[in-house]
Amino acid sequence: MRLLVTGAGGQVGKEFLEEAVAHPIFAEVMGTTREQLDFTDRSQVFDAVTGFAPDWIVHLGAMTAVDACEDDPDAAYLANALSVRYLKQAARRTRSRICYLSTDYVFDGTASTPYREWDPTSPLSVYGKSKLAGEAELDIDDLIVRTSWVMGRYGRNTLKTILTLARAEGAVRFVADQVGSPTVVEDLAGALATLILEDMSGVFHLTNQGHLSWYELVRFVFAEVGADQARVVPIDSSEIAATRKAPRPAYSVLDNCAARLAGLAPMPDYRESVAKLARQLWLAG
Fold first, then answer.
1. Of these residues, 127, 215, 251, 270, which one is catalytic?
2. 127 an active-site residue?
3. What's the confidence (pLDDT) of residue 27?
4. CA–CA separation, 116 and 155 (whole Å)
5. Which domains does the chain show, CATH number per domain?
6. Angle, nearest 10°, between helix axes 83-94 and 126-136?
7. In Å, how far from its chain's centre is CA 29?
């Protein structure tokens, strides 16, 4: 099986590439960074896809800076939606299938129970709208994976920010009224590979099991690395609304319903995976 991976320089892309290269069934894996393949350039996309003729295109490249998407909607739609159209057009020539990484931001966060794959979408932000537009470019035979609160060994993410704050002093303020499910990239990469190997299609939600607020997550991480939980102060999201251009869904817990009904093993509980990653990053300094 031949894989073409976009966004191979990102936090998900790097770990997925490691997972894929180590897997014996993935005979050839071409990982491309944004510098190697500008997926917003139609000519580059066609050259890469038709030249390599992959079985699967794993599209992990995206514009994920949520507030920056509000500043430049055209850039967001180009990176998150039109790029998918280009990949799909090229994929038709080579009979390749596409795996597209999407987000919990396609929901508005007004639910009180976890979102299933078939629940209506209603994104609040440009980021969420552009990712949903990317989903719409794909066919029933393609694979769409929505995930949330992603944190891994590479790149910048909230877990690394939390650990930096744990090493400092003073109060740490985090919102207590935004609830979601953390997703550790190592687990996500393995689950993505499984869906591809199982020849799955359609929409899947993939997150670690369990959910909590950002405030609760910070307290959990502080406890794991021996920092003082008393330093963590809960606040309401309205207190920092002026510093954020993009609205965040208040409740974006994703029910991994399709994977469960398909008989696939669930990803580990977030407590296990976040604790393991937090300690690993903490020791690495």
1. 127
2. yes
3. 85
4. 29
5. 2-214+240-284 (3.40.50.720)
6. 20
7. 20
